[in-house]
């Protein structure tokens, strides 16, 4: 199963268990632009899987109203880039509904799915990673999976989480990531990072697509190809890198990251969005405060640049394995 | 914006008045008895023939059945609501209420008339000028004033403030202009999905009516035939801009494209009751959404920080107060139809004042929320992140 099939499988599981669950968004009734909802309308009926007008703000507000009446609302924003018209509804309505009504109403059963991150040629309006914009919206959760198994388990957990969740799916992985995904209903924990490779010399933290660049960079560090060999000192090639997938961006797993950095003394964070005001900045601020005396090197960020995602230079904008390798070398030899 | 508003006055204003179009009646006391008023039995009255206008649908009939008890109840409620808002006004001036505070003085006929015509199963969702709804639909004056004061006894535990008041049958209380309108479509969809025979009243003002999401919600509601009544409370000013200056089309009941609309006199509470009965029947019978515009007037400023006299004349406010006041309108019906004497009505006013005075004291006596309310209700209890950062180390909270 690849990632879009895993998402579809999760939606199907969710709708089967929960009669109040409805899936809606632009073009979802006939499968959606990435085929994530393919066949759902036929399976569950057009009353439960339906198209909306092109009105993101309307979709989000509609979903909040639906959710506040006890429905499980699973909305799709066609691209994460188009979540900004709905930003007001998400930040001011969904996130604060519980708080400002003193717990009387909430939009907890709302989940907003949106394809996110770069594909290499999406440009300004189809390749952004807007997760950082939601960091200050206390009341919502933001989840980003890295693979089909993760996507299904985390999406089911997001749908059932009693808080509104924004679920961003790295769209380049829809087809390229393939795993043996259980067809049963299962959930993975929200709010918990996962250590993919244990290590003791540096913590390498990422989420979504760049996880794979990190993995490549780790291999390059251990056995650099000839053309790069002179840039990778011999002494660093046996370094043990701890690779961590953050999975939930808000609220992020402070304890796990602090625990890891306390052991390794070094941290490299990789994300696609620009650096300023980004998730990496938030994490490094907290880590440098909590691990100040344990750090052997400054926290290193490998991110997109502080520009719009450029159409022509998208490959240059998104962090790749080389930039991650460079950051590892710099941090390890600090 | 202020300079822009001034610049505009210098421009020649072309106001086209079509001489043969009849305008809506906005007097508060133009309803006539149809038969002798009865003290015990329901009796029928006839609304002024210009109480309504219809768009792509017939205007509601002018016949309405009322009872003495119903009229008295509405009178008491309107008197109480006005007293309560006046108390809020004075608490705000004493700097006991902080933040924002939008009063409904002048518009009482709408909330009270709607409450009269609807059941608690019907949904009402509105913006930030909503104090009466919270009290009429399950709250108390104490809990409302307590919320304004930010006290524990508040209807949202003191965490919402003036704009964010909710009860089980009133879905709030939303501070962002127009943002509640798509939510209303969602409420209506849920009601339809669950096959409940209820109407959803989604309310907004003439100012919010120009928000893009309002039209998005209209479209969805019509597309899916939702049992939703979109109510535009046209109080003639969106903050400090008159309707004519903000809207290309000020006939708000005609702005739903394919959705039919009704314009109603929002100052005569009997016209409000009739319009709400009519629109509820309309949506519950499966006719899809309908627009309902109440032409009304607010006596005060947009909020407490607006004196309300920079963009309209004092004479205009005074004229509305003295000629079209909804409470005085109903008072006239009760007196002229021989249902209550002036003394009785004065006693009701006194009772309302006493009730509000007592509520003010009770609300003031209620303590401020506990510190830990800062970090409760952000996430669902039991699924919070382990740590939420406060201003300082020791204020941070571990769940």
Automatic annotation (TrEMBL), chain A:
Cofactors required = thiamine diphosphate
Q: Locate the Transketolase-like pyrimidine-binding domain: which residues?
A: 1-176
The catalytic activity, as recorded, is: N(6)-[(R)-lipoyl]-L-lysyl-[protein] + 3-methyl-2-oxobutanoate + H(+) = N(6)-[(R)-S(8)-2-methylpropanoyldihydrolipoyl]-L-lysyl-[protein] + CO2
The signal peptide stretch is none
Name any Gene Ontology BP term.
Answer: branched-chain amino acid catabolic process
Q: Which domain of life is it from?
A: Eukaryota
Q: What is its EC number?
A: 1.2.4.4
Query: CDD domains, per this entry?
Result: TPP_PYR_E1-PDHc-beta_like (cd07036)
Please give the name of this protein: 3-methyl-2-oxobutanoate dehydrogenase (2-methylpropanoyl-transferring)
Q: Which UniProt keywords apply?
A: Oxidoreductase
An example molecular function term from Gene Ontology annotations:
branched-chain 2-oxo acid dehydrogenase activity
Lineage of source species: Eukaryota, Fungi, Dikarya, Basidiomycota, Agaricomycotina
TrEMBL record, chain B:
* All residue ranges annotated as the Dehydrogenase E1 component domain in the record: 77-369
User: Which molecular-function annotation in GO is an example for this chain?
Assistant: pyruvate dehydrogenase (acetyl-transferring) activity
Query: SUPFAM superfamilies, alphabetically?
Result: Thiamin diphosphate-binding fold (THDP-binding)
The reaction(s) catalysed by this protein are:
N(6)-[(R)-lipoyl]-L-lysyl-[protein] + pyruvate + H(+) = N(6)-[(R)-S(8)-acetyldihydrolipoyl]-L-lysyl-[protein] + CO2
Keyword field:
Oxidoreductase, Pyruvate, Thiamine pyrophosphate
The EC number(s) given in the record are: 1.2.4.1
Enzyme class, top EC level, equals oxidoreductase
Which GO biological process categories is it annotated with? pyruvate decarboxylation to acetyl-CoA
Q: What InterPro entries has UniProt attached to this entry?
A: DH_E1, PDH_E1_Alpha_Subunit, Pyrv_DH_E1_asu_subgrp-y, THDP-binding
Q: Which cofactors, if any, are listed as required?
A: thiamine diphosphate
A Pfam family matched in the record = E1_dh
Q: What's the stated role of this polypeptide? A: The pyruvate dehydrogenase complex catalyzes the overall conversion of pyruvate to acetyl-CoA and CO(2).
Write the protein's name. Pyruvate dehydrogenase E1 component subunit alpha
């Amino acid at each position: 199963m690849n990632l879009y099939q895993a998402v579809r499988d999760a939606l199907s599981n969710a709708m089967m268990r929960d009669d109040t669950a409805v899936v809606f968004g632009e073009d979802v009734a006939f499968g959606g632009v990435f085929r994530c909802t393919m066949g759902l309308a036929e399976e569950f009926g057009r009353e439960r899987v339906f198209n909306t007008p092109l009105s993101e703000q309307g979709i989000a507000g509609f979903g909040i109203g639906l959710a506040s009446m006890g429905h499980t609302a699973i909305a799709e924003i066609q691209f994460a880039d188009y979540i900004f018209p709905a930003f007001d509804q998400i930040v001011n309505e969904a996130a604060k509904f519980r708080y400002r009504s003193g717990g009387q109403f909430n939009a907890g059963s709302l989940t907003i799915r949106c394809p996110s991150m770069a594909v290499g040629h999406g440009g300004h309006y189809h390749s952004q990673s807007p997760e950082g914009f939601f960091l200050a919206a206390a009341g919502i959760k933001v989840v980003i999976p890295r693979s089909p198994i993760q996507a299904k388990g985390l999406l089911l957990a997001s749908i059932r989480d009693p808080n509104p969740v924004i679920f961003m799916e790295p769209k380049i992985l829809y087809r390229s990531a393939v795993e043996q995904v259980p067809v049963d209903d299962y959930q993975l924990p929200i709010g918990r990072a996962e250590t993919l490779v244990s290590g003791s010399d540096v913590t390498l933290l990422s989420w979504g697509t760049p996880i794979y660049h990190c993995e490549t960079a780790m291999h390059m560090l251990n056995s650099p190809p000839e053309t790069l060999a002179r840039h990778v000192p011999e002494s660093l090639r046996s370094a043990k890198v701890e690779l961590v997938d953050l999975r939930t961006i808000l609220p992020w797993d402070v304890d796990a990251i602090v625990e890891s950095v306390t052991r390794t003394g070094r941290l490299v964070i990789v994300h696609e969005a620009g650096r300023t005001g980004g998730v990496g900045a938030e994490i490094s601020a907290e880590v440098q405060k909590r691990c100040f005396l344990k750090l052997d090197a400054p926290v290193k960020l490998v991110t997109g640049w502080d520009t719009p995602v450029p159409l022509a230079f998208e490959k240059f904008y998104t962090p790749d394995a080389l930039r991650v390798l460079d950051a590892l070398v710099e941090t390890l030899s600090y | 914006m202020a300079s822009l508003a001034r610049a505009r006055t210098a421009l020649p204003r072309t106001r086209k008045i079509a001489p043969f179009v009849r305008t809506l009646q906005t007097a508060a006391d133009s309803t006539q008895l149809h038969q002798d008023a009865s003290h015990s039995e329901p009796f029928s009255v006839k609304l002024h023939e210009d109480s309504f206008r219809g768009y792509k649908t017939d205007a509601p009939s002018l016949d309405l059945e009322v009872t003495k008890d119903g009229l008295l109840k509405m009178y008491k409620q309107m008197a109480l609501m006005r007293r309560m808002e006046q108390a809020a006004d004075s608490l705000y001036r004493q700097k006991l209420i902080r933040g924002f505070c939008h009063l409904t003085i002048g518009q009482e006929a709408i909330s009270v008339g709607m409450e009269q015509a609807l059941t608690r199963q019907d949904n009402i969702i509105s913006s930030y000028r909503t104090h009466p709804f919270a009290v009429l639909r399950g709250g108390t004056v104490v809990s409302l004033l307590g919320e304004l004061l930010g006290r524990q006894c508040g209807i949202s535990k003191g965490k919402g403030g003036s704009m964010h008041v909710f009860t089980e049958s009133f879905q709030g209380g939303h501070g962002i202009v127009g943002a509640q309108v798509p939510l209303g479509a969602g409420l209506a969809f849920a009601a339809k999905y669950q096959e409940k025979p209820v109407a959803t009243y989604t309310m907004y003002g003439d100012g919010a009516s120009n928000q893009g999401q309002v039209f998005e919600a209209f479209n969805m509601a019509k597309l899916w035939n939702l049992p939703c009544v979109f109510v535009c409370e046209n109080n003639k000013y969106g903050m400090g801009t008159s309707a004519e200056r903000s809207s290309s089309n000020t006939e708000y009941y005609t702005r739903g494209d394919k959705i039919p609309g009704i314009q109603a006199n929002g100052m005569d509470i009997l016209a409000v009751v009739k319009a709400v009965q009519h629109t509820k029947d309309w949506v519950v019978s499966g006719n899809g959404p309908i627009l309902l515009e109440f032409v009304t007037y607010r006596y005060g400023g947009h909020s407490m920080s607006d004196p309300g006299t920079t963009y309209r004349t004092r004479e205009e406010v005074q004229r509305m107060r003295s000629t079209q006041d909804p409470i005085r309108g109903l008072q006239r019906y009760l007196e002229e139809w021989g249902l209550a004497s002036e003394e009785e009505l004065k006693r009701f006013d006194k009772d309302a004042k006493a009730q509000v005075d007592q509520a003010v004291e009770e609300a003031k006596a209620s303590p401020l929320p506990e510190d830990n309310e800062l970090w409760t209700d952000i996430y669902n209890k039991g699924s919070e992140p382990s740590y939420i950062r406060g201003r300082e180390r020791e204020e941070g909270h571990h769940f």
